[in-house]
Write a structure and sequence with these properties.
The chain has 315 residues and is mainly α. The chain has one domain: Up-down Bundle (Rhopdopsin 7-helix transmembrane proteins). The chain has twelve helices and three strands, in the order βααβααααβαααααα. The chain has a three-stranded mixed beta sheet. Helix 3 runs antiparallel to helix 6 and helix 9 packs antiparallel against helix 11.
């Protein structure tokens, strides 16, 4: 049953309403244009990158397989969040079913964690490439990529399953208006009539365990990489080593900077507009996805050449 958020009746809800900037129609209008362009850019650029890696035999290497996995994760995250946000902006389609809401919650949590884990594996790849170049082909091979993909999938699927389950088991007795554009765990569970302490604790512990451990390992990898680069005597060798890591490092900055700003605005939520964390949450699902393939496409000669070869074949 669909109820207004101010209803005092104790009736279990079957749908939620996403209040996605509905109090600011002008903001919806002006956001819809750049958001739709970013969505089209993310889907198009990642599709081109995936097709290029798949069809070009020269790109059938571990690093590009990992980049393809990252593109796939970005596309799923975009499709999970952005179309619904645009439907709210354009047609005021705010209702989302009970089960669709928790499915969206699960996909967002699990795929963001998978993306973070993929960055960590890519950092390890760059660490081996710079610090142990002679051993790189024997360590980073197709078997390594297969094992890494299984680890990324298994770790994050299992650790994030409790998040929607803990929220879904709560009793929602009347309020059904989510003050967000997406079914974020805390935004949804906050509507229930039950104690949400376990939900908050698991969200906090799980988030810092998964994303925090990945970030620490990425930091350690680049610390060892920087130390190895500084020991290189040739300026050309140093520049080449830094160039191989620059694209990946920029991608990590995209992913973590928006996430950090989002966390900080939540901490200081009394000092900023409540719309700011909501906007950052939406943008975190589309900006990295739109920029990741462009950064690698522009800064990686092998990918540019692969796209050029495919275009020539098409002509």
């Amino acid at each position: 049953m669909l109820l207004d958020g101010n209803s005092s009746f104790s009736v279990e809800v079957s749908e939620f309403l996403l209040n996605c900037f509905v109090r600011s129609p002008w903001l919806q209008f002006w956001l819809s244009m750049p958001l739709s362009l970013l969505f089209l850019l993310a889907m198009g650029a990642n599709s081109i990158l995936l097709i290029t890696i798949w069809l070009d035999a020269a790109l059938h290497e571990p690093l590009y397989y990992l980049l393809g996995l990252l593109s796939l994760l970005d596309m799923v995250l975009c499709l999970t969040v952005i179309p619904k946000v645009l439907l709210i902006f354009w047609f005021d389609l705010r209702p989302i079913s009970f089960y669709a809401c928790f499915l969206q919650m699960y996909i967002m949590n699990s795929f963001l964690a998978m993306e973070s884990c993929t960055f960590m594996v890519m950092a390890y790849d760059r660490y081996i490439a710079i610090c142990y170049p002679l051993r790189y082909p024997s360590i980073i091979n197709d078997q390594f990529v297969a094992k890494a993909a299984i680890f990324i999938l298994a770790r994050n699927v299992l650790f994030t399953v409790p998040i929607p389950i803990l929220s879904a088991r709560l009793y929602y007795c009347g309020k059904n208006v989510i003050e967000n554009c997406i079914c974020a765990n805390m935004s949804v569970s906050g509507l229930s009539c039950d104690d949400t302490t376990i939900n908050r604790l698991y969200q906090f512990a799980g988030g810092w365990t998964l994303l925090g451990s990945d970030l620490i390992l990425i930091f350690l990898s680049y610390t060892f990489i920087l130390r190895a680069v500084l020991r290189l005597k040739s300026e050309g060798a140093m520049a080449k080593a830094l160039s191989t890591c620059s694209s990946h490092f920029i991608l990590i900055l995209f992913f973590n900077t928006i996430l950090l700003v989002f966390v900080l605005t939540h901490v200081a939520k009394k000092k900023v507009s409540p719309d700011v964390p909501v906007l950052l949450n939406v943008l975190h699902h589309v900006i990295p996805a739109a920029l990741n393939p462009i950064v690698y496409g522009v800064r990686t000669q092998e990918i540019k050449q692969g796209i050029q070869r495919l275009l020539k074949k098409g002509w």
